[in-house]
Amino acid sequence: MVTSAGQGGLFRTTVVSKISRHRSNLEMFDSRSVLLGLATLNGVQAWGTLGHATVAYIAQNYLDDATATWAKGVLGDTSDSYLANIASWADSYRSTSAGKWSAPLHFIDAEDSPPTSCNVDYERDCGSSGCSVSAIANYTQRVGDGRLSKANTAEALKFLVHFLGDVTQPLHDEALDRGGNEITVTFDGYDSDNLHSDWDTYIPQKLVGGSTLSDAQTWANELISQIDSGSYKSVAANWIKGDDISDPITSATTWASDANAFVCSVVMPNGVAALQQGDLYPDYYNSVIPTIELQIAKGGYRLANWLNSIYSAHIAKRKRDGETMIKKKDVDLSGRSFLPPPIPLSEQKKKRAAAGYGCMHRH
Ligand SMILES: *[C@@H]1O[C@H](CO)[C@@H](O)[C@H](O)[C@H]1NC(C)=O
Ligand SMILES: [Zn+2]
User: Fold this and answer.
1) Distance, CA of 227 to CA of 230 (rounded, Å)
2) For this structure, is 361 an active site residue?
3) Is residue 92 part of a domain?
4) Does residue 69 form part of some domain?
5) Distance from the alpha carbon of residue 204 to the mean position of ligand 1, in angstroms
6) HSE on the CB side for 302, CA within 13 Å?
7) How far apart are alpha carbons 259 and 288 in whole angstroms?
8) Ligand 1: residues within 6 Å at CB?
9) How many domains in the chain?
10) Which domain holds residue 168?
11) Is residue 338 part of a domain?
12) Is residue 258 annotated as part of the catalytic site, yes or no?
């Protein structure tokens, strides 16, 4: 994909007016701290609200009609934003005391050595309290099972919509400096950013010019047109190649490995120190935008295919064959069977636990 100087990326043609509006706001008052205030309320973890909503809108576009009807029913939302509305629920939930247990499920801390060596090893990296990969497996099993309450089924769908987004963000698949949370950088004049939140939130927001649902829908439409008839057309089939809901650990580990490879090639190709030698805007920003757009597009496309597969293999099948045909008393819906065998805690996992699995905010 070609990136021009300036705004860079696929989005540049449609975003110009928004960006200039944003800039004139900045001249009048620090609109960024206003945005940040909102973002903090919603939880600035994992792709920010913009990224997650964009993934969700892309997925909505590729859901089969029957899958969409099912998802709307599960969520009790027949609006045009039924997935986008809940895409960041998991980030709000993790910041409540009732939801704290779910914080480790937003990432897999790959203990590799970027930039020289990037790799994900499920048994080494997931940790005994679970990770994004085990969570995707758990909620894939739970959402399609049919024995859970409406609330538990909705919870499973909300987690899936979120975690299939998280897993495409390279720094959610990396242990180094807690996924970059401890790497202090300057971006666009802000000198106490951390690399993780720049990737999650501030770089995408700089590109799009806002973080509302309508910004997400606009970005999603742009990426959808690239999938349907633009630069992603020839590669989109590869994004879902081999995806198999009956082997969710393998599929989700493949997604995590795919994103983790960008830590070496794009996120920090010259190591951490090189990121701390000046403003990441515009050069670094321009170098990473194509990857951010690619990963958001992938996340949405995969999510649609994954939900379509769950629907046809479980929900539609049950409607067709009736509940009685399905014997699964032996299925363990706690998801414990997906967890890797316990191993002693590494230093990096101890550090992550000590930090409370949170992320560092600017304020
Ligand atoms: C599976 O999901 C349920 C419901 O959210 C949760 O209680 C359980 O801990 C999860 N299991 C794993 C292994 O993540
Ligand atoms: Zn998350």
Assistant:
1) 6
2) no
3) yes
4) yes
5) 31
6) 32
7) 13
8) 130, 134-135, 138, 142, 155, 334-336, 338-339
9) 1
10) 44-333
11) no
12) no
Per this entry, what is the length of the chain? Answer: 363
As a whole number of angstroms, the distance between CA 212 and CA 324 comes to 45
Please give the distance, rounded to the nearest whole angstrom, from the Cα atom of residue 45 to the centre of ligand 2. 5
Spell out the per-residue pLDDT of the chain, length 363, in tens: 333 334 445 554 333 333 332 333 333 333 444 444 444 433 344 689 999 999 999 999 999 999 999 999 999 999 999 999 999 999 999 999 999 999 999 999 999 999 999 999 999 999 998 999 999 999 999 999 989 999 999 999 999 999 999 999 999 999 999 999 999 999 999 999 999 999 999 999 999 999 999 999 999 999 999 999 999 999 999 999 999 999 999 999 999 999 999 999 999 999 999 999 999 999 999 999 999 999 999 999 999 999 999 999 999 888 888 765 555 566 789 999 999 998 888 988 888 888 877 554 433
Structure token digits, residue 49: 């609200």
Closest ligand 1 atom to Cα of 138: 1
Which two structure tokens, joined as six digits, stand for 77?
């939302």
| 106 carries an active-site annotation | yes
Identify whether the C-beta of residue 285 lies closer than 8 Å to the C-beta of residue 8. Answer: yes
| Mutational pocket test of ligand 1: of 138, 337, 339, the residue with most ligand atoms within 8 Å of the beta carbon | 138
Task: Supply the DSSP string of 273-337, one letter for each residue.
Answer: GGGGSSB-TTHHHHHHHHHHHHHHHHHHHHHHHHHHHHIIIIIHHHHHH-GGG---TT--TT-GG
Question: Are the CB atoms for 198 and 287 separated by under 8 Å?
Answer: no
- H/E segment holding residue 184: strand 184-187
- Tell me if 291 is assigned to some domain: yes
Token pair in block for residue 50: 């913009």
Q: Ligand 2 (ion): which residues have CB within 5 A?
A: 45-46, 106, 166
User: Residue 73 C-alpha to ligand 1 middle, in angstroms?
Assistant: 22
* Nearest CA, atom 11, ligand 1: 335
d(CA 3, CA 10): 8
For position 268, which CATH number holds?
1.10.575.10
Active site residue 196: yes
| Buried/exposed 218-244: b ≥16 CB within 10 Å, e otherwise | bbbebbbebbeeeebeeebeebbeebe
What is the full DSSP assignment across 25-57?
HHHHS-HHHHHHHHHHHH---SS-HHHHHHHHH
